[in-house]
Design a protein that fits this description.
Length: about 140
């Protein structure tokens, strides 16, 4: 006949194994979520690898700038460019050419600001999926 002491040791061992398995599942759920979010971010930012912008003033007035996309290869969908003048998002009026596509290397356009001279201009490439490339062009006086 079995002793009650042996049965309680088996039950205790089974309960400990179940607790360890539950802890593993809980930890995996947290780790898996973190890994997935990080992987998605790396995938989005991968399109930005090698993309660079150059911002060059045209003339001495610091109201007209040449924005040049250099490096990174051809992008599959046309990105947009956000322009920041003195740290504030600003529209170029006008772009020349009027509708640059920014899909290929060496795409260039001039941006004219209506207001007075500026002390800094930054151009940021925004991909079609909304990802802002961390590599951008910047000019500072």
């Amino acid at each position: 006949m079995f002793s009650k002491k042996a049965q309680s040791e088996i039950i205790t061992t089974v309960l400990i194994i179940l607790l360890v398995l539950a802890a593993i599942v809980i930890v995996w759920q947290v780790v898996q979520g973190t890994i997935k979010k990080g992987g998605d971010q790396v995938t989005k930012q991968g399109s930005c690898i090698g993309v660079a912008m150059d911002v060059v003033p045209v003339g001495a007035t610091n109201t007209v700038f040449s924005i040049i996309r250099k490096g990174g290869g051809t992008l599959s969908a046309a990105p947009t460019i956000k322009i920041y003048k003195d740290g504030v998002e600003t529209a170029c009026a006008p772009w020349n050419p009027v509708a640059p596509t920014w899909t290929n290397d060496a795409t260039a356009a001039t941006c004219t600001f209506a207001a007075a001279a500026t002390t800094s201009v930054e151009a940021i490439l925004i991909l079609s999926d909304g990802t802002a490339c961390p590599v951008s062009g910047k000019w500072t006086k």
